[in-house]
Specification:
The complex is a heterotrimer of chains A (310), B (563) and C (197). Chain A is an alpha+beta fold and 310 residues long. In chain A, 38% of the residues lie in helices and 21% in strands. A 6-stranded mixed beta sheet of chain A has the order 1-9-6-2-3-4, with no helix packed on it. Chain A has a 5-stranded mixed beta sheet with strand order 5-11-10-7-8. Chain B has helices at residues 8-11, 34-63, 73-108, 116-135, 166-194, 207-239, 252-286, 293-307, 322-334, 336-350, 359-382, 384-390, 394-424, 430-448, 451-456, 471-501, 552-562. Classes of the chains: A alpha+beta (310), B mainly alpha (563), C mainly alpha (197). Bound molecules: heme-A (2 copies), dinuclear copper ion and copper (II) ion.
Chain lengths: 310, 563, 197
Amino acid sequence: MNLKDNINPKISLIIGISFAVFIDLVLSKLMASWSYSWLPVQASKAAPYVDNLFAFETGIGTFIFLGCSGVIGWVLLFNRAPKYDESYGEPFEGNVKLEIVWTLVPLFLVIAIAIYSTKVNTTLQNLGEKTKYDSQKELPTYLDNNEASAGTFIDVISRQWSWEFKYPEGFSSSELHLPINEKVYFRLISKDVIHGFYIPAFRLKQDIIPGSIISYSLTPTRKGIYRLRDSMFSGAYFSQNQTNVIVESKDAYQEWINKTVKKVPVDGLNQAGFLYKKRLEKGDKGWATISPSPSPQVNDPGNPDSAHEG
Amino acid sequence: MTITNYDERIIKVNQPVPGAPNNWRRFFGFNTDAKVIGIQYIVTALIFLLLGGLLGMLIRGELITPPSDLFDPTVYNGLYTMHGTVMLFLFLFPILSGLTNLLVPPMIGAPDMAFPKLNALAFWLVPVFSIVLLTSFFVPGGPASSGWWSYPPVSIQNPLGHFLNGQMLWIVAIGLSGVSSIMGAINFVTTIITMRAPGMGFFKMPIFIWTVLAAQILQLLGLPALTGGAIMLFFDLNFGTSFFNPETGGDPVLFQHFFWFYSHPAVYVMVLPVFGIFSELFPTYSRKPLFGYKFVAVASFGITILSLVVWVHHMFYTGTPMWMRNLFMFTTMLIAVPTGVKVFAWIATLWGGNLRLNTPMLFCLGGLFNFIFGGITGVMLATVPIDIHVGNTYFVVAHFHYIIFNTIAFGIFAGIYHWFPKFTGRMFYEGLGKVHFTLTFIGATLNWLPLHWAGLLGMPRRVASYDPEFAIWNVIASIGAFMLGVASIPFILNMVSSWSRGKKSPPNPWDAIGLEWLLPSPPPHENFEDDIPTVLNEPYNYGLNKPFVVDEEFYISKALNDS
Amino acid sequence: MTTTKSEVLLHTPGHVKHDGHNLTGFIIFLCSESIIFFAFFVGYGVLKITAPTWYPDGVSGIAVREPLINTIILVSSSFVIYFAERYLHKKNYWGFRIVWLVTMLMGSYFVYGQYVEWSELTFSLSSGVFGSLFYLLTGFHGLHVITGILLMGLMLIRSFIPGNYDSGEMGVESISLFWHFVDVIWIILFILIYVWQ
Ligand code: HEA
Ligand code: HEA
Ligand code: CUA
Ligand SMILES: [Cu+2]
């Protein structure tokens, strides 16, 4: 009591607030470093940039959230009216200085986030450029492009509901094999509706628009098996439209190519077709759907049961 | 020449609400009284909340285990499409129209809406388009199943080839809902602009009125774009035109622009009135003036204007060029600024107050808490590189349910409890209200918090089956969802029993400031009739010695006598 | 606190009129309606610029002469309707009725011209992007013209009800506003479809 009386109330308020802000900052920092563990493994050059940005925003977000809810919690603990107390609180109507502060601070924060993410955008664009072409007017031809000719070129063909990957060596596969640490170029093609090319471990997602061809590129950086998911709702068996991405060493990749080129084409992975057949056998119950397009003919149908990370 | 044995005055029982038949039947007919229409809207909408919630629980039932074992995937797709549509167009928009109808005329001292007949017509379209939408469950092929976005080409595939199909009924229902909303918007805007009480300049209007005005102007500007898009979609689906059909040269992405040009602002149409409710309730229950009234009022229009130029943030991964991504990222994030002004003003209003934690206040506090969280995940989504990863995953689903259920539905519950005594003349049971709040808060948090992590790990939305690694988050979420179902029981009990046998309410049970609190509970048919008060100040001067209207005593004693 | 206490306590009940907002409401409606057209125009522009094929097979352009005559008639009717309103203000009811009828006839001629044009065209609603857009835009506009004519008919009949104008000329004013609106939309439409080929 004595101590409290001696200190100027304004100073004790400032000390209290600084203490609260300090705790808030520490917690936000902790949350930001924890946030990396909420995301899948980082398997592409782009992933660390995205994750850093996410951690940055988690930090800012935590700071704001804890700050606001801290005040709400304080008020709930210390400013509750006793039962039957109908009296008023301190009647202050506003404070223009404070209003300006809390207009400008979020404005600066938002500008900071926007500048940071614009930079990341540019970085990502340089790591994996993306262009949209009208399929009836022009086709992207990589092979004329000197810079591009250093990489691997794969056509990604999406259907309702299966994936097909066409390799320049002239064969196709139901699973996407990629060599590690090498830039790969895709042409994303849809045969029917909009699909989404989404590989969480690579932190990338791109819609595939029928009528257009979108070129896309990326560099995988970690060996392993990852999941490729259709991310844009594409009809009845949308959730089955998934396959594996296998990132392997350059040698293993070359070996896989040599082996697969020689294989005879068979029906590719087509989980939707399988389920649809089962549905027909059971008397075609359920609501109407387009029938799945026939399985693509591929040289390697892959192994859908292999375990994936991320 | 009929001979009556009774005195006329005995047959016609004295009616407490002058001009309105004193029975429940008036709620089932074509009535032009805004207060009747308001209650019609609210009750209809709550029934659809129950339906939408049931569909939500079926979805969560399917998702409690990874494979699609409860329903065929086609059925799952229909269920979530109808869940989204029912919740937005049959529950949320109607219930907000209901609250607006109830509150706008008394709050501004008007006797009724500017166009009472148009108002009733707008309401009666709700059952019409609801029936249209719900019949689609029974047409061959089932209801619309392409998501509430109805993106072509999926939405124009029409598997059975029938003219009468679920998707077509969906478009018709949305179109009629748009017509109803436009009628409502014209009415609300005209009423607010032309029928305010003497002395009530714009800067003396309650914040709720400000937010309604901002929201309804958005309806007028945005909704026609959706209608235009829907008309084209209808023709593509049924008459073989090629606006959005890539096979004949159309552009499917064009539809997305039409859709989001409206449907983004639509989210602010939904949230703005809830901001209004927060701004009314926080001062009342903290016993303090609203902090920075003018800033809070103007911020509503800041949100309105900005929200018209952010729609591309729903399309970052569709192949939009870089300049567009950066531009729309920035405009989207700017919305945090006027929204922040409001959030901080509410918190400052709480600070140093004398808080009364009854049910409406609890829902407000819970809603504000959840809104800050949902807003921050919104800013994360606006960040292009992050959206490229989490877009179309459960992170988005969690973001918007945090706002749409955990904030907006909370705010609506708060508003219903707060104004329940005013418009029914009865008090609700505080204990049941607290049970409702506790179950809802815990259920909602269990339901939506865990799904953020499922989304960050890459679980796409709109899937009937998923990889087993996401199971844990989904189990918790489903338990939360079922808890929300349980939470509706005390609410229904409370509403029904309080309305029929609750304690009589005084004109101003919360000791609140506002024109509506100067009226008897329930207010008479034409509110103040020809005795409209002259407003002197904005209605938030708790504890300040500023008179609210000229001759307040007169109105208070009048209200007491009429109650 | 400049007002003295006695002034504050003086009870002067106010009164809010709740009729006479019809025009305000109608103007708000028209603003909103124009956005549907705006959406269609944007759609037209975007598809015209980006679509891989524009005109349907065998069509190289679209004739301008007949539509131009149509345009002139519709645009002049906007002036004619103004004179009808003037007559009504001066309480010259027969003058109003006759000029009003002339406007209706001009509008009907426009619809007829539109019908003739449609029946002579070699492409249909489902002939590619241009076909779809052409019929959508002209059709949706045509519906508005027909609505306008029907509403004018209604007003014409009501003008025979004694005392119809005692409480103002709101109906006539609104319809006339609507007619100008339909006109402006047509001018934009004409420029988009016929001039920008
Ligand atoms: C109904 C209400 C509602 C509201 C109010 C919001 C508010 C916001 N939303 Fe949300 N949103 C939806 C409903 C809503 N949203 C829906 C339904 C969808 C999905 C539709 C679908 O796909 O089906 C969606 C989807 C959605 C997306 C698309 C994601 C995707 O599909 O990939 C994005 C991306 O930018 C986004 C962003 C935002 C932002 C930035 C806000 C901002 O307005 C939030 C602003 C608020 C705050 C930030 C908190 C308070 C502020 C402060 C305390 C100040 C300080 C803060 C900072 C400096 C950060 N939302
Ligand atoms: C207002 C909007 C709203 C609301 C409130 C909700 C509420 C809920 N939603 Fe929502 N949801 C959407 C709008 C909404 N949703 C939209 C737009 C989509 C996207 C659709 C799409 O992708 O196309 C979606 C998608 C969506 C999904 C994702 C589906 C998928 O992508 O595959 C899921 C899954 O968990 C889900 C579940 C739930 C649950 C469990 C609730 C629960 O919170 C519900 C709890 C409510 C109740 C249990 C009812 C309680 C009833 C009362 C209190 C009324 C009392 C009655 C009387 C007095 C008569 N919803
Ligand atoms: Cu009608 Cu006053
Ligand atoms: Cu949005």
